[in-house]
Amino acid sequence: MDLKNTLAFVAAAATWKAMSKSTSTTNGELTPQQQQNGHGEEKGIQCPVTGKTLNGSSSGCPVSNGFPKPDPGHRCETGDIEETKIPDVPPLTQKQREIIKSTAPILAEHGVTITTHFYKNMIRAHPELRDVFSESSQKLGHQPRALAAAVYAYACNIDDLTPLLPVVDRIAYKHTSLHIVAEQYGIVGKHLIQSIVDILGDAVTPEIGDAWFNGYWNLAKIFINREREFYTTAVENGGWEGWKQFKVTQKIKESDEITSFYLKPLESIDSGKSLPKYHPGQYIAVSLYIPSLGYKQARQYSLSDRSNGEYFRISVKREDGVAIPTKSNPVVPSHPGWMSNLLHEKLHEGSIIDVASPYGDFFYEPSLIEPNAPLVLISAGVGQTALLSILNSQLENKEKPINYITVARNKKVHAFGNYIRGKVLKENPNVSYKVFYSSPEEGSDLSGKDYDVKGRMNLNQIKDNLYLDDKSTEYYLCGPEKFMVDKLEELKSFGIDEKRIHIELFAAGELPQTA
Ligand SMILES: Cc1cc2nc3c(=O)[nH]c(=O)nc-3n(C[C@H](O)[C@H](O)[C@H](O)COP(=O)(O)OP(=O)(O)OC[C@H]3O[C@@H](n4cnc5c(N)ncnc54)[C@H](O)[C@@H]3O)c2cc1C
Ligand code: HEM
């Protein structure tokens, strides 16, 4: 994704976060005041969403429909929208755009409260969506924050959405990888608008309700159309829409923490049908039933080998989880990651898993730029996966200078070192390799053999390997948020144009925040 646009979005998200700190309710529950706000079955008042005159019945109400008990916010007599129908909304009027812009700060102040409340209610009404949303992202608040930030960014850019389009693509790719479909926008729309009404109460006048209703659907349609394009392209390229059963054909331990899985489609094992071509750097999603949760979960994994038509390879870090004790709660259990642990422990050669077609806007395609331009691949830990795919995809071009730079704690957790030193460097004199160990183990981890530099990655120490003089050099970064922010700053301090820096982050909605 273009960095400038990422950061524009992030700036909006940061403002959102800062503003949302002043929120009075933080757990998504209604305050007594909010519970009272317009929630009685009064007669002769208007629905805050549709503007219709109400008589206290909830039947057909677009905001209360589907709730297990009468919902505090409903006041409609009749509604014209069912949650699974996509309304035919007109483009926003200038007045509605003004309303959305002027109410964005109010929405921002309560954004995370609204979206947390929204998820809780939506999952209660649609338990099947547990298979779709990440349990951990909900628990940790990542997903509500990401949604709130997206809605706020939309409101701030309502007059000209062009700067947001790359962000829309990033989100739309994530959605398609998880097989989000148009009908689900009806469910999300209903519950999101309901939550705005629940939390903001009488502040949501019919005019404001109308503007946001139209605003939501205009945004939703941008996503729905873009996602439809992505599904169509995937199918045209030999992929599929939704999930397909794959078999694990090989499982290889790459380090104490990272294991690779080679995946082949069940159907091609017999038919020999080849897999779709993907761009190096793209990811697939996998979906698996998690017995201890009692429902499915899906996660994205970068493809860690070049596109080869025969298999997908993913390389997964086992997330043990960290226990962070507090004063009030000194004995906190760690929460191991659901999917990564299940994959490591229970997915063996011969196991079956659901897999989505490859998607993603982070990739390297030299035909789009100068084919022999130098390439610098900078990763930390499991961030290597996406960059290894890029590296492997370029090995046929012996004219292209490539520098592969990575950091790990020590040799035990350093994956792919043997492959790169033992094969890639021997066969490709155009490739160089720099390894940082932040905590090498005395005696077993050897400087000059296992690693080159002791300590955290500092690009100043290897400035000569960054092809800084060549203005066509492209830089690809993948790793944890803090690492990416630091490397981004270092690269910018060398005078590198942001357009030549490309970033991928392995987390929901948590984009690097330099703004
Ligand atoms: C585009 C993309 C590409 C990716 N590529 C890769 C890849 O190549 N390899 C790879 O290994 N990963 C990759 N990831 C990350 C991957 O999708 C998963 O997020 C990762 O495997 C963790 O999933 P999980 O289910 O094991 O952990 P989750 O259950 O999702 O938990 C996430 C983290 O939160 C912690 N946690 C969960 N619940 C709690 C709680 N209640 N309290 C405190 N902490 C908690 C967990 O310990 C864990 O560290 C990628 C992500 C994206 C978005
Ligand atoms: C206009 C409506 C929507 C907006 C603005 C929106 C916004 C977002 C954003 C910002 C992210 C984080 C992307 C990232 O990781 O970089 C996200 C992820 C996600 N969205 Fe949406 N979304 C919308 C509609 C939907 C719908 C209709 C569904 C399906 C019911 C859905 C399901 C998901 C899921 C499952 C994720 C991945 C995170 C997780 O697993 O919890 N979204 N969305």
TrEMBL record:
Region (Disordered): 22-46
GO biological process: cellular response to nitrosative stress; nitric oxide catabolic process; response to toxic substance
Biased composition (Polar residues): 22-38
EC number: 1.14.12.17
Protein keywords: Detoxification, FAD, Flavoprotein, Heme, Iron, Metal-binding, NAD, NADP, Oxidoreductase
Gene Ontology molecular functions: FAD binding; heme binding; metal ion binding; nitric oxide dioxygenase NAD(P)H activity; oxygen binding
Chemical reaction(s) catalysed: 2 nitric oxide + NADH + 2 O2 = 2 nitrate + NAD(+) + H(+); 2 nitric oxide + NADPH + 2 O2 = 2 nitrate + NADP(+) + H(+)
InterPro entries, sorted: Cbr1-like_FAD-bd_dom (IPR008333), FAD-bd_FR_type (IPR017927), FNR_nucleotide-bd (IPR039261), Globin (IPR000971), Globin-like_sf (IPR009050), Globin/Proto (IPR012292), OxRdtase_FAD/NAD-bd (IPR001433), Riboflavin_synthase-like_b-brl (IPR017938)
FAD-binding FR-type domain: residues covered: 241-365
Cofactor: heme b; FAD
Domain Globin, chain residue ranges per copy: 91-228
Domain of life assignment: Eukaryota
Stated family: In the C-terminal section; belongs to the flavoprotein pyridine nucleotide cytochrome reductase family.
Function of the protein: In the presence of oxygen and NADH, it has NADH oxidase activity, which leads to the generation of superoxide and H(2)O(2). Under anaerobic conditions, it also exhibits nitric oxide reductase and FAD reductase activities. However, all these reactions are much lower than NOD activity.
The protein's name: nitric oxide dioxygenase
Species: Kwoniella dendrophila CBS 6074
